[in-house]
C-alpha cells in the first residue's frame, strides 16, 4: 500500500465517522471567530436553543471592522464612527459574553488579525484541524495543520457539533526546489505559483507546499504561502512539520509545556508526507527562476515578474482569457506592453493576514530606512497584524523608520486589504499592496490593486512607481562597499 | 432550509469567467448582522453606476443600462447562467444569500469555487456543473430566444430545455437528500453525537494539549 500524504494523515486523525453516502464527519480542534461571519451563526444557535459543543475550542477577535487610525481606535468599540461597523463589533462582544467565548477585544493585548494571532499565541498548533469563517484560514496550514475557511452555516454547524460534514479533497504537491535569489520572498513564491496554476488550479485539492525552497522559509514565510492557497483555488494549504515549526511553536502561550510538549513533539514528528505517498497532481517550480512579482490585473493569477511588461491580449489565443485580460486592463487603466516598472502608485498598503507579521515589517523597514516616500504617493499605510507584532516592531524601533519615511504607523486590523474599515482606495487609484486579492473594488470602489511583497511595496512607496527591489539592494551593497573602500 | 425539488424559471447571464465573491456582494454589505436583505446589492458594482452603501434605498440609484439583470427581458430571472470558476475568493455566505434574496434558485456553470459551491447547498440554492460546451450552448440559446426558461429537476438530476431536451447533472447524494427534504445539517450531525463523544474521549487521551488550553 502506498504511503500517506500529510493531508491523508490529518484527515485520518480527525475522522469521526465515514458515512455510506461518501461523506465523513471530521472533528474540529480549533474554531477561530471574527465579527463579520459569526453574527448569523450565533443567532442560529440562539433560535434553536443550542450551545457551543466545546467552548474551549473557540477563540474570537474583531479584526475586519476595527479602525486602524489611533485616535478613532482609542475610543474602543463605542468609538467606531461607522455605525454599521460598530454594531457588528458590538454584536461579537455580546455573543462572546452570552455564549462565554474567549475573546481578545478591540484594544486588548491579544487582539489582531485572526490568522496572525492564532499561530502567535499557540491557539493554532501542528496536527490540528482549524476552521474559521474566512477563506484565509489556510494560513494555519503552515504549522502542519489542516486549516480551511468555511461559510457561516458551517460556523454554526461547528459551534453546535464540533464537526464538519466533508468529502475528502484530492492531494496536490507544489514543490519549489532550489535557492531563492536575494530580494525574492515567500510572497513572490506564492504569486509565481498562482501565476503558473491559475486561480482555479487548486480547486478540489488540498495543497502541500514542499521542496527545499519552501523548507528554507521561516514560519512567517510559510504562512504567507499557505495564506494564498485559496487564491489558487485550494481551500487548504499546508507545510510539513520540521525543526523550524517546533522552534516557532515552543513556548507560545497556548502551546503544550513540559511532558506534554515532549509527547506532542513525538506526535508531530509524523506530520509529513511519507516518501512513497502518492499525489493526484504535482506542480514543480525552480526557485532560481522566481523574480519579485507584481500583479497587473484583477485576479491573483494575473501576475508578472517585475522585469516584465503588461501582457498584450492580442497574443492570447483562448477567447475567455483574452476577454479577461482586456477587461482587466481597462479596469486597471493599463496599456498592453507597458513596463511593470512604469506603473505609478497613489497609495501603498503594507499589512493583511498575508504580510503583516514581524518579518514582513522588518523587510519593509530595511528598504525604507533612510528614505522618504515619493511626493506623488498620497499615503503609505503600515498596519501590523496584531498587538503583539505592533509591540515587537516598536521595541525594535521599526515604527520610527516608517514614520521618518513619511509612512503612517497604524493599529492592528485587516484595514485596506478589504476596506471594511475607513482605509480605502479612491476610484482609479493604484495601490502597491501586500494583501492577497486584487479583485475589482476590493480595496475601495474603483480602486486598482497590485499585489506585491513587503519589500517591493516599500520600494514602490519610495520611488512612486514599481522598482525591482533587487536593484535597490544591489545599489545599497555597492554603496556600502564604496564606503568601506 | 427551504427544500429544492423542481424549479422552472427564466435564465439570465453572468457572462464572464472567475466571478469573485467581492463582485457578487461587495464588502460594505457584509457589515449586516442579518441573513436577508442582500438582494438589492447583488452584483452592486456592475448593476449600478454609483457606489453603494449599506442601508441605502437602491430604488433611486442610477442603473447600469448595459448590465443584463437590468434589461427588461431578464426581469424575474431565477436561473443564472455563468462561466468557469464562479464564486472564487472569500468564504462569505453573503454571496449565496444575495443570489437567493434576489430570487435565484440555481446557478449553472462549467465550474465553481469550492467554498462558494458548498455554501450554496446550505441555503437551498442549487449550483449545477455542466460541461463547458453544454454551458456555451445554453448561453447561445438564451441569447437567441427571449423568455428562455429552464426546468431543473433535482430528483431526476436533469436540466430540461424549452424544447424538451434534457441534460443530466451530477450531485452529491447527501447534498441532494438534504436539498430535496430541506434538512438542517446540524440536526443530522447531532444524531451522531455518541460517535463524536467517543472520538473526543479517545482524542483527549492521545493529545491532551488540544483540550482546555484556552479558557
Automatic annotation (TrEMBL), chain A:
Q: What is its EC number?
A: 4.2.1.33
EC class, as a word, reads: lyase
Arranged from A to Z, the UniProt key words for this protein are: 4Fe-4S, Amino-acid biosynthesis, Branched-chain amino acid biosynthesis, Iron, Iron-sulfur, Leucine biosynthesis, Lyase, Metal-binding
What pathway is it annotated to?
A: Amino-acid biosynthesis; L-leucine biosynthesis; L-leucine from 3-methyl-2-oxobutanoate: step 2/4
What InterPro entries does the record point to?
3-IsopropMal_deHydase_lsu, Acnase/IPM_dHydase_lsu_aba_1/3, Acoase/IPM_deHydtase_lsu_aba, Aconitase_4Fe-4S_BS, Aconitase_4Fe-4S_dom, IPM_dehydratase_rel_enz, IPMI_cat
Organism superkingdom = Bacteria
Q: How is the cofactor bound?
A: Binds 1 [4Fe-4S] cluster per subunit.
The signal peptide, as residue positions, is none
Cofactor(s) needed by this chain: [4Fe-4S] cluster
Q: Which residues bind [4Fe-4S] cluster?
A: 353, 414, 417
What this protein catalyses is:
(2R,3S)-3-isopropylmalate = (2S)-2-isopropylmalate
Which CDD domains does the record cross-reference, listed alphabetically?
IPMI (cd01583)
Aconitase/3-isopropylmalate dehydratase large subunit alpha/beta/alpha domain location is: 8-464
Task: State the function annotated in the UniProt record.
Answer: Catalyzes the isomerization between 2-isopropylmalate and 3-isopropylmalate, via the formation of 2-isopropylmaleate.
Family label? Belongs to the aconitase/IPM isomerase family. LeuC type 1 subfamily.
Q: Which NCBIfam families match?
A: leuC, PRK05478.1, PRK12466.1
Subunit text: Heterodimer of LeuC and LeuD.
Question: What's the protein here called?
Answer: 3-isopropylmalate dehydratase large subunit
Q: Which gene encodes it?
A: leuC
TrEMBL record, chain B:
Aconitase A/isopropylmalate dehydratase small subunit swivel domain segment(s): 1-132
The record's section on Pfam families has: Aconitase_C
Assigned keywords, A-Z: Amino-acid biosynthesis, Branched-chain amino acid biosynthesis, Leucine biosynthesis, Lyase
The record's catalysed reaction(s) read: (2R,3S)-3-isopropylmalate = (2S)-2-isopropylmalate
Q: Which domain of life is it from?
A: Bacteria
E.C. code: 4.2.1.33
Which InterPro entries does this entry report, sorted A to Z? 3-IsopropMal_deHydase_ssu, Aconitase/3IPM_dehydase_swvl, AconitaseA/IPMdHydase_ssu_swvl, IPMI_Swivel, LeuD
Pathway info:
Amino-acid biosynthesis; L-leucine biosynthesis; L-leucine from 3-methyl-2-oxobutanoate: step 2/4
Q: How does it assemble?
A: Heterodimer of LeuC and LeuD.
**Can you tell me which family this protein belongs to?**
Belongs to the LeuD family. LeuD type 1 subfamily.
Purpose of the protein: Catalyzes the isomerization between 2-isopropylmalate and 3-isopropylmalate, via the formation of 2-isopropylmaleate.
Q: What is the protein name stated in its UniProt record?
A: 3-isopropylmalate dehydratase small subunit
Q: Which organism is it from?
A: Microbulbifer flavimaris
State the organism's lineage: Bacteria, Pseudomonadati, Pseudomonadota, Gammaproteobacteria, Cellvibrionales
Gene encoding this polypeptide? leuD
Amino acid at each position: 500500500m502506498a504511503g500517506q500524504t500529510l493531508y491523508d494523515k490529518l484527515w485520518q486523525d480527525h475522522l469521526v465517522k465515514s458515512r455510506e453516502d461518501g461523506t465523513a464527519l471530521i472533528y474540529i480542534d480549533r474554531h477561530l471567530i471574527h465579527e463579520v461571519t459569526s453574527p448569523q451563526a450565533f443567532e442560529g444557535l440562539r433560535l434553536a436553543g443550542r450551545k457551543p459543543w466545546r467552548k474551549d475550542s473557540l477563540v474570537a477577535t474583531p479584526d475586519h471592522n476595527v479602525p486602524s487610525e489611533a485616535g478613532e481606535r482609542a475610543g474602543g468599540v463605542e468609538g467606531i464612527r461607522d455605525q454599521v461597523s460598530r454594531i457588528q463589533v458590538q454584536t461579537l462582544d455580546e455573543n462572546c459574553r452570552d455564549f462565554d467565548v474567549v475573546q481578545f477585544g478591540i484594544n486588548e493585548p491579544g487582539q489582531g488579525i485572526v490568522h496572525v494571532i492564532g499561530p502567535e499565541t499557540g491557539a493554532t498548533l501542528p496536527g490540528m484541524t482549524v476552521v474559521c469563517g474566512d477563506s484565509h484560514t489556510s494560513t494555519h496550514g503552515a504549522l502542519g495543520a489542516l486549516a480551511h475557511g468555511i461559510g457561516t452555516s458551517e460556523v454554526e454547524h461547528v459551534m453546535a457539533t464540533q464537526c464538519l460534514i466533508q468529502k475528502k479533497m484530492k492531494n496536490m504537491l507544489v514543490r519549489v526546489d532550489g535557492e531563492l535569489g536575494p530580494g525574492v520572498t515567500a510572497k513572490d513564491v506564492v504569486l509565481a505559483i498562482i501565476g503558473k496554476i491559475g486561480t482555479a488550479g487548486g480547486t478540489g485539492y488540498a495543497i502541500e507546499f514542499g521542496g527545499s525552497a519552501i523548507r528554507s522559509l521561516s514560519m512567517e514565510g510559510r504562512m504567507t504561502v499557505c495564506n494564498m492557497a485559496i487564491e489558487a483555488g485550494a481551500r487548504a494549504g499546508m507545510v510539513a512539520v520540521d525543526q523550524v515549526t517546533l522552534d516557532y511553536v515552543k513556548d507560545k502561550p497556548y502551546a503544550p509545556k513540559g511532558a506534554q510538549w515532549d509527547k506532542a513533539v513525538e506526535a508531530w514528528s509524523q506530520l509529513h508526507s511519507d516518501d512513497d505517498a502518492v499525489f493526484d497532481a504535482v506542480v514543480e517550480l525552480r526557485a532560481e527562476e522566481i523574480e519579485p512579482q507584481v500583479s497587473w490585473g484583477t485576479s491573483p493569477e494575473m501576475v508578472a515578474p517585475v522585469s516584465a511588461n503588461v501582457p498584450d491580449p492580442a497574443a492570447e489565443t483562448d477567447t475567455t482569457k483574452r476577454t479577461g485580460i482586456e477587461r482587466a486592463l481597462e479596469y486597471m487603466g493599463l496599456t498592453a506592453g507597458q513596463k511593470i516598472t512604469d506603473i505609478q502608485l497613489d497609495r501603498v498598503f503594507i499589512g493583511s493576514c498575508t504580510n503583516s507579521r514581524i518579518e514582513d515589517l522588518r523587510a519593509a523597514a530595511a528598504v525604507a530606512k533612510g528614505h522618504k516616500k515619493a511626493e506623488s504617493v498620497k499615503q503609505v499605510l503600515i498596519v501590523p497584524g496584531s498587538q503583539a507584532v505592533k509591540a515587537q516592531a516598536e521595541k525594535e524601533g521599526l515604527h520610527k523608520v516608517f514614520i521618518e519615511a513619511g509612512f503612517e504607523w497604524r493599529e492592528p486590523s485587516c484595514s485596506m486589504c478589504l476596506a471594511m474599515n475607513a482605509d480605502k482606495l479612491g476610484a482609479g487609484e493604484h495601490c502597491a499592496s501586500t494583501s492577497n486579492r486584487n479583485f475589482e473594488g476590493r480595496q475601495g470602489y474603483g480602486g486598482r490593486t497590485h499585489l506585491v511583497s513587503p519589500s517591493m511595496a516599500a520600494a514602490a512607496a519610495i520611488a512612486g512607481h514599481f522598482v525591482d527591489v533587487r536593484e535597490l539592494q544591489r545599489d545599497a551593497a555597492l554603496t556600502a562597499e564604496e564606503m568601506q573602500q | 432550509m427551504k427544500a429544492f425539488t423542481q424549479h422552472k424559471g427564466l435564465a439570465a447571464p453572468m457572462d464572464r469567467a472567475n466571478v469573485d465573491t467581492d463582485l457578487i456582494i461587495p464588502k460594505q454589505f457584509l457589515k449586516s448582522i442579518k441573513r436577508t436583505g442582500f438582494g438589492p446589492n447583488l452584483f452592486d458594482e456592475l448593476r449600478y453606476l454609483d457606489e453603494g452603501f449599506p442601508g441605502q434605498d437602491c430604488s433611486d440609484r442610477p442603473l447600469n443600462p448595459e448590465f443584463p439583470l437590468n434589461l427588461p427581458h431578464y426581469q424575474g430571472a431565477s436561473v443564472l447562467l455563468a462561466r468557469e470558476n464562479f464564486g472564487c475568493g472569500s468564504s462569505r455566505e453573503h454571496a449565496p444569500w444575495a443570489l437567493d434574496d434576489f430570487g435565484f434558485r440555481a446557478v449553472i456553470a462549467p465550474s465553481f469555487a469550492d467554498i462558494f459551491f458548498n455554501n450554496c447547498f446550505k441555503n437551498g440554492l442549487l449550483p449545477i456543473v455542466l460541461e463547458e460546451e453544454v454551458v456555451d450552448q445554453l448561453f447561445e440559446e438564451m441569447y437567441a430566444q427571449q423568455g428562455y426558461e429552464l426546468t431543473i429537476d433535482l430528483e431526476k438530476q436533469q436540466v430540461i430545455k424549452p424544447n424538451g431536451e434534457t441534460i443530466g447533472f451530477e450531485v452529491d447524494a447527501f447534498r441532494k437528500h438534504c436539498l430535496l427534504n430541506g434538512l438542517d445539517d446540524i440536526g443530522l450531525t447531532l444524531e451522531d453525537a455518541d460517535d463524536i463523544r467517543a472520538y473526543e474521549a479517545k482524542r483527549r487521551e492521545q493529545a491532551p494539549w488540544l483540550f482546555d488550553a484556552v479558557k
